[in-house]
């Protein structure tokens, strides 16, 4: 009985996540004049989609106009990543990526301003959008695991 409830919850979560992915990827919902977000590609060994590297796009919705830029590894960061030690990494979904806000306005950017001597990055979208993705992503990409000794 407990196993069936757990499986049911997992099914619902996967259904909601899949619906959200399809909605963001293929539909503009209510805003027919919206610019489609074209940052996704097929290059990922973990997810059904990857993030384009060194990409820039003006992304518009009725509520916002933002510029999306990615660096050499597909992170939404202004600086390229060459294996530098990461002090704090934010894993997450579209909120972590910065849906509807420009670079500098995300919560990872605000923390970076508060701690300028720390290397703080957002792994949003590149790491997936569901906790098992974070595990698989970090297992396959240990260079993005934060240095726990340096966190204050």
Plain-language structure description:
The chain is globular, with a radius of gyration of 17 Å. The protein is of the alpha+beta class. The mean pLDDT is 81. It is built from 4 helices and 6 strands.
Which terms would index this structure?
single chain; 152 residues; alpha+beta; two-stranded antiparallel ribbon; 13% strand
Write the layout of secondary structure elements.
Elements: H1 2-26, E1 40-41, E2 50-51, E3 56-60, E4 65-69, E5 88-90, H2 94-97, H3 107-114, E6 120-122, H4 131-140
Parallel strand pairs: 5-6
Antiparallel strand pairs: 1-2, 3-4
**Uncertain stretches:** none
Overall number of strands:
6
Overall geometry: globular
Alpha carbon gap, first and last residue: 44 Å
Oligomeric nature of the chains: single chain
Whole-angstrom Rg: 17 Å
SS-derived structural category: alpha+beta
The major beta sheet can be summarized as: 2 strands, antiparallel
Mean pLDDT: 81
Helix and strand sequence: HEEEEEHHEH
């Amino acid at each position: 009985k407990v196993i069936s409830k757990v499986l049911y919850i997992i099914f619902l979560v996967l259904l909601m996540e899949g619906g959200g992915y399809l909605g963001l990827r293929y539909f503009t919902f209510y805003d027919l004049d919206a610019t489609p977000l074209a940052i996704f590609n097929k290059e990922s060994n973990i997810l059904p989609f990857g993030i384009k590297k060194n990409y820039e796009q003006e992304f518009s919705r009725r509520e916002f106009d933002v510029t999306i830029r990615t660096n050499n590894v597909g992170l939404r960061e202004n600086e390229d990543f060459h294996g530098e030690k990461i002090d704090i990494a934010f894993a997450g979904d579209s909120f972590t990526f910065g849906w509807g806000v420009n670079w500098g306005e995300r919560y990872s950017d605000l923390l970076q301003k508060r701690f300028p001597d720390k290397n703080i990055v957002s792994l949003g979208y590149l790491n997936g959008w569901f906790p098992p993705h974070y595990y698989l992503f970090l297992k396959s990409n240990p260079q993005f695991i934060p240095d726990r000794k340096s966190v204050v």
